[in-house]
Specification:
By secondary structure, the chain is α/β, with parallel strands linked by helices. The protein folds into 2 domains: 59 residues, DNA polymerase, domain 1; 165 residues, Alpha-Beta Barrel (TIM Barrel), CATH 3.20.20.70. The protein is built from 8 helices and 11 strands. The longest helix has 15 residues. The protein is globular, with a radius of gyration of 18 Å.
C-alpha cells in the first residue's frame, strides 16, 4: 500500500494525469490533506465518488496511528506517541510558549526512528538507528497534532527523534510541502531544522540555497568537552 503524503506536488501531478485527472485536482487534494486536514478520502466532497474510490484503492491517507497523548499540568506541553505501519514508535511534542493557546505555538517533530549519532544525554540514542521516516510520516505528525489540538498557527522544528540531516532528502521534501500555499502554507521563517553538525549536509544545504531556519545543537562550546557528550565529529 502506498502512502499519498509521501508524494510532492509534481509527483502527484504525474499520478493524477495518468489517472485522467486535471492538475487542479492535485491542488484540491493538498488542500484537503493539509489545510482541511481530513482523515479519509471520503471526506473530499468535491471529488467524484469514482475518484475517491480509486484513491482509496491505491493509497492510504495516514501512515501514522496515534497511540498516546500526554499533557504536562505545569505548562501545557503535550507529547504524542505514534505507531508506524511497521509497528515502530515515534514521538512529537506540542509546545505552548506561555502555557496558553494564545502565545507562540510550536510542534517539535521527529525525522528518524532511533538515531545513530550516539549523544550521551539523549534517550533516542539508546534505541540505536532503525530507519528514516518517509516524507509522509514527517508531515502526518503535524496533521495529527493539529487535528488533536485544533490549533493551526504553529512553528515547526525538526528537533524530535533522529538527526534530520541524516535523512536529508525526506526532511527537505517534507519541509517544501509544508510551505505550499495550497497546503499547510507554513512560512519558511516558521520552519527550523536542527542538526548536531553534519558538515557535508550543511554545505549541501547552503549550496542549494534552502530558505528554512538552520539551528546547530552545540551543548558545549569547547570541542574537547562537546565530543564527550556528542561524539558526532
Amino acid at each position: 500500500m502506498l502512502f499519498i503524503k509521501d508524494y510532492n506536488f509534481d509527483e502527484l501531478r504525474e499520478i493524477f494525469t495518468s489517472m485522467g485527472e486535471k492538475e487542479y485536482r492535485v491542488r484540491q487534494l493538498f488542500n484537503w490533506m493539509y489545510e482541511k486536514n481530513v482523515s479519509s478520502f471520503d471526506e473530499m466532497s468535491n471529488f467524484s465518488k469514482d475518484l475517491r474510490a480509486r484513491l482509496t484503492g491505491q493509497f492510504r491517507l495516514s501512515p501514522l496511528r496515534l497511540e498516546d497523548r500526554l499533557m504536562s499540568e505545569i505548562d501545557g506541553t503535550e507529547k504524542f506517541l505514534f505507531r508506524t505501519h511497521d509497528d515502530q514508535f515515534i514521538e512529537s511534542v506540542f509546545l505552548r510558549n506561555d502555557g496558553t493557546d494564545e502565545g507562540r505555538l510550536t510542534i517539535c517533530i521527529s525525522s528518524q526512528i532511533g538515531c545513530q549519532m550516539g549523544c550521551r544525554f539523549c534517550e533516542t540514542a539508546k534505541i540505536g538507528f532503525i530507519r528514516n521516516l518517509s516524507p509522509g510520516e514527517i508531515l502526518d505528525q503535524i496533521c495529527h497534532v493539529r487535528r488533536m489540538t485544533g490549533l493551526k498557527n504553529n512553528n515547526i522544528v525538526f528537533m524530535g527523534m533522529g538527526e534530520p540531516f541524516r535523512n536529508y532528502d525526506n526532511v527537505l521534501k517534507a519541509a517544501d510541502v509544508m510551505n505550499y500555499t495550497f497546503g499547510f502554507h507554513i512560512s519558511v521563517r516558521k520552519i527550523t531544522i536542527s542538526t548536531s553538525g553534519i558538515l557535508p549536509a550543511i554545505e549541501r544545504y547552503i549550496d542549494e540555497k534552502r530558505p528554512y531556519n538552520l539551528a546547530l545543537s552545540l551543548n558545549d562550546t569547547l570541542p574537547e568537552k562537546r565530543v564527550v557528550h556528542m561524539p558526532v565529529e
